[in-house]
Amino acid sequence: MRYMTDTIVKYILENVNQTTGVFRYVFPSYPPELLFEIGRKLDEGFRRIKNFKVGMRYGIAYRLGQEWKDGDDKQRVYFDKIRQKGWYNETDNLTSLRNIIKPQEYDSLVILLAGYEHISDQGSLQDFFHLDQQTIWRICLGSSFKNWVRQSLKNHINSDDEGDFEVISDVLK
């Protein structure tokens, strides 16, 4: 899941970097540890941008959280972390985040919604960029596992030949 998290975070950070406006993203019902790490790493990444202030509003669907609450120990641990960060939508009004206007103190505002399949009013999310697995595969990864393979094996394979990583990627594909 680390590669998935890193890919999503990198994509959003690159889109927001030094660009004024409101950015809206919606994620499917990914596992709680993935959604927590996305939020944590984005929050950290936005804080590191110099001379540019980015605000973040993150809401995770109420019904998805209820599943985690009744899930296994790992899900409950991450659910608690998500709640502590204030990212869980306790009031079940997640789509209200779509209407937030960028406060003056921010150069950009990033609105993240998670748990698309668990959101009642999905029709109102058409103006959100859907970061589902197909979009990540096509846009973020360019329909290739090559970057993930390189990241995973760079300390284990003594090769500067990009072709090696391409061959392994093709096998996985």
Q: What shape does the CA trace take?
A: globular
- Which structural class should the secondary elements be placed in? alpha/beta
Secondary structure: helix percent: 40-55%
| Uncertain spans | none
**Count of beta strands:** 4
Q: Kindly state the mean pLDDT as a whole number?
A: 84
> How many whole angstroms does the radius of gyration measure?
17 Å
What's the story with the biggest beta sheet? 4 strands, parallel
Compute the number of helices. Answer: 7
**Lateral arrangement of strands in the main beta sheet:** 2-3-1-4
Strand % is 5-15%
End-to-end C-alpha gap: 17 Å
Order of helices and strands: HEHEHHEEHHH
Describe, in plain words, how this protein is organized in 3D:
The chain contains seven helices and four strands. It is an alpha/beta fold and 173 residues long. Strands 2-3-1-4 form a four-stranded parallel sheet. It is globular. The protein starts with a helix and ends with a helix.
Short overview:
The chain is 46% helix and 13% strand.
Quick tags:
173 residues; 4 strands; globular; alpha/beta; 46% helix
Any chance you could write out the topology, listing elements then pairs?
Layout: H1 2-16, E1 21-27, H2 32-48, E2 54-60, H3 62-69, H4 73-85, E3 108-114, E4 129-130, H5 133-140, H6 146-153, H7 162-172
Parallel strand pairs: 1-3, 1-4, 2-3
Helix pairs in contact: 1-2, 2-4, 6-7
